[in-house]
Amino acid sequence: MSAQPQVIRREDYTAPAFLIDKVELVFDLDRDVTNVKSRLFIIANPVRGTGAGNEVSFDGEDMKLVSIAIDDRKLGVDEYSVDKTGLTFTAPGETFVVDIETQVSPVTNTRLEGLYVSQSAFCTQCEAEGFRRITYFPDRPDVMATFTVTINADKATCPVLLSNGNLAKSGDLDGNRHFAVWEDPFPKPSYLFALVAGDLACVEDSFKTVSGRDVALRIFVEHGNEDRCDYAMDSLKRSMKWDEEVYGLEYDLDLFNIVAVSDFNMGAMENKSLNIFNAKYILAKPDTATDMDYELIESIVAHEYFHNWSGNRVTCRDWFQLSLKEGLTVFRDQEFSADQRSRPVQRIKDVAQLRARQFPEDGGPLAHPVRPDSYMEINNFYTATVYEKGAELIRMMHTLLGADGYRKGIDLYFDRHDGQAVTCDDFAKAMEDANDVDLTQLKRWYSQAGTPSLSWKGDYDADAKQFRLTVSQKTAPTPGQPDKFALHMPIAIGLLGKDGKELVSRTVQLTENEQEFVFDNINETPVVSFNRGFSAPVNIATQQPHDELVFLMGNDSDAFNRWESAQKYATALMLAAIEEFEKNDGDADGALGDVTDFITAMRATLQNDDLDKAFRADALVLPGEEFLSEQRKPANPEAIHQVRNALRKQIGTMLKAEFADTYHQNVSNAAFTPDAQSAGQRALRATALGYLVASGDAQFADLAAAQYRNANNMTDRMAALAVLNHLDHPGRAEALADFEERFGKDTVVMDKWFGLQAMSSRDDTLARVKDLMSHPSFTMRNPNKVRSLIGAFAMANPRHFHAADGSGYEFYTDRLIELDDINPQVAARLCAPLGKWAKYDDDRAAKMKAALDRVLAKPEISRDLYEIASKSRA
Ligand code: ARG
Ligand code: ZN
Questions:
Q1: pLDDT of 774-790, one tens digit each?
Q2: What EC number(s) would the UniProt record show (predicted)?
Q3: CATH number at residue 54
Q4: ipTM for the complex?
Q5: Whose CA is nearest to atom 3 of ligand 1?
Q6: Which residue of 278, 356, 455, 725 is 20 to 30 Å from 26, comparing CA positions?
Q7: What is the CATH number for 655?
Q8: Is the shortest distance between the CB of 382 and ligand 1 below 6 Å?
Q9: Cis peptide before 46 (omega within 30 of 0)
Q10: Nearest-atom index, ligand 1, CA of 113
Q11: Comparing C-alpha atoms, which of 558, 106, 175, 140 is closest to residue 343?
């Protein structure tokens, strides 16, 4: 990058001057030089404004232009111009045909955008702007065309040839090559184009749609992985059924293909009828995948499938509208998982995730609205804000309109906009029109960044038998948005009587900066259960007294708030202790003081057999170090680590007998099944093991080592390894060596092994991470490897990443700089942890800023990394 990258602004949107009716692509696949012929049937956009002119401008990057012809006449070099970003020429009229021939090099494509090689297969990733690395094209989502794709390739190395839509023709060619022609009848933007070619195994099944059509379902994987596709396939079928039942949406083609590849920048991609997945989110069998992996597979398979309607049939007009499809589709996959498993447990997971990933984003230098106003590199905006906060926005609409009103809005949206590229406003308008409501204020969630903070105060009037609840909201300034408006949010409230009985359950609408809500006929001072189910995605500044939190932990009918009360209590204790620790110079136990009341409440949760086990497992987990760091300024990573561990130790010590019982009662000798109930049992047992080991009693480290050795599934194996991982116990080295020997050849499974070591709190962790970079299974070219070793070190090991001597930052910065030349998109994503400098003490902040300066001084820094590093430095 020589000049500063251009800023793209939402307000500058203009409709495309030319549209494309039909695209015909011919690929001559070769690892080194792939030839791409593209025939485009172009028409001037009838809605284009005056002054659109007759200049045609196509995007294109990193490829060689072989030739261009208009209406079958080859253009001379003076009839077009081509540079590093694209191709321009003059339109001969209103409708015309363009032929473009380009050459690209899949094998040197380490950015994994466009056409690249993963293991030995060819595959593509075009969202957001990868198609322009395949051929010159108006690479924007509001240009939608039908695609016919011919793939020519070597028969031996590429027996499988896939693209979007239906297979129209296939056959042999000279020179041991063959071809396939794919036709996609649904007009689509270029970002949904996909091609796969390689020697892949295939697992087949089928689904009968509600109207009786049979859809062939295929999952393509590397040979040898055929026995790891069952769960993904089952998840796909359940997703298809759920979308019919809950949204009335049926699949629209006779086949649906999924391909799993090892090298992938993100989780997965919803290309029309040809989803491409990071193999990590497809492959699972009991001895290679944990319960968490199964859950993720289920939700990501569903997510990509749901995009067929929310994303593909109705897509985004421009990339500022990304949350139109992502927020909606995340909400859909969250609800699917809630229906498949436990609803409260799902909500707890989703909220924990939002707090761990989105709240820090909203409170830091990269804060942006759900619908951003500007970007330098759109790939940097596939964020927790666009996805998860976007989903919360849709959830609030659902809460406001009710399930039926929401569904009416959804029906109108798909009816009105099928086949179109639309905006977030169009979505909200459909919701408004179908329900005859005004969502103007709720829509501010699309445009206003930052997490609101709510305070509340209750006032009981015994004479009037009235309870008044005063609620106020405030959102702190974020970059570019100094002043904030009051947002509209639904707040679910419960009022509980002394005996635990529910007096009131009501959702109030907060629309003002400060507002009073009155509850009549209340006969006693109630305990307030505020923001039940996390009905609004906000922080709550009000501290409830500890005895009320204990009361709610035991009595709230809202399971989410039972969990939340435990989190709040634990947070309050730990924050107070962290402050004390800093004063008393490092005595974590002394800093905690007497925590008996808290632990007694934890015991009650542990032993409450009315609560399901997955819930209990979650409710017993203390808020994480990253979450605690967010609440402190400056955050002291060592203090946070010590205090949290000290509390874990006290819990483990005080509840040793109870956890030992839990551990032994939840042994299962049955064969592993990934269902929610069995997973909950394993999770509770793992929690018990964690606390037993935390007690410091050496016999339990032996127990963990034994669990590792005797495990008959990956969940139990990883649970044991996760606790051994921080110890000096000989079982640790033994288990890690065994793991490597068992799974050394298995790239997806080895990611766990790398990740664990990067997350260890042991003193030798950084040295070990450095060594592991030269492990034969590690490569900077594979994003999963980079994320599990390098990413996990920065994002899940605050104590070592923020080591006071700066060694963590230094190592990390070297990696970012190295990675930027290989894969800028992944490098940019990994840069965010350095941007948190404002949260730390002056010394750490100075070191982090120096690290960012070093990143920014890199010659030829990518646009991706530049945007994140420069915004983080500001
Ligand atoms: N649309 C995909 C999904 O949410 C994500 C693809 C993002 N890819 C990227 N390079 N930014 O499922
Ligand atoms: Zn998505």
A1: 999 999 999 999 999 99
A2: 3.4.11.2
A3: 2.60.40.1730
A4: 0.98
A5: 269
A6: 278
A7: 1.25.50.10
A8: yes
A9: no
A10: 10
A11: 558
